[in-house]
Amino acid sequence: MRTRKQELISDSLKPIVSKTIKEARAKYNYSLEDLAKALNYKKNRQTLHKYETGALNIPYDIYFEICRILNINSNIITEAPTTAEEQEKLEKKMIKEYMNSLRSDKDLTTKMEKLINSYKNIAYEPITNKSELTLKISDDSMEPVYLKNDKIYFEKCQDYKNGDDIVIAIKNNLLAVRRLYKYPKGIILQALNPKYQTININIISNDMILGKVKSIYREVK
To answer: At 79, which CATH number?
Structure first.
């Protein structure tokens, strides 16, 4: 589906936008593929190249997202000479972007949204200056390290090692934390509480693991 013209950076702003993105990408040694990946492939490498060369007008929402990724001051486009009509549209876009930046779910991807809709004890919540996927521990299977109702922040990794605490689906519509141990013929998913059964699996892929525990949030009463 084609982007409507009013959602695109104008021809008068295109040169400064193209130049700014290209310079910032070079500064951080980001390839076009790196940038496409950081955008969750909303735009591919070829399209990003066309934005940088001025062959295509970039949509405002993609421009603002690239600004966040490459630490660009998005206000730079307000300094470019434009018509009164374009300036008014630009001001509205900047206000909209500012309001969007305040939303806790602004970085929620389609994959994250699917996880939240699939499992009862997962959410997307603020931590420091951004939001992360969180898992609410629903039982005492990982005591004494993790307590019931603890919030676990986790993230997807490329690889997992022995002793990593991972998030995996072990019950219908519920996620749990288990300690991972690999051996030649398979893996063990270990509950730290001995009253819970150890899970042995012959084959597991990284896609089956939803992430590795990064931190714990616990309310102290």
So the answer is: 1.10.260.40
33-77: pLDDT as tens digits:
999 988 888 899 999 999 999 999 888 888 888 888 888 887 777
Together in a domain, 199 and 118: yes
User: Any idea what DSSP says for residue 10?
Assistant: P
State mean pLDDT over 85-107.
65
Structure tokens at 48: 């990003």
Query: Which residues 6+ apart lie within 8 Å of 49 measured at CB?
Result: 32, 55
Contact 211, 133 (CB under 8 A): yes
Asked if 211 contacts 155 with a C-beta cutoff of 8 angstroms, the reply is yes
Whether the model pTM is above 0.85 = no
Domain, as residue range, for 175: 110-217
Work out how many domains the chain is built from and give that number.
2
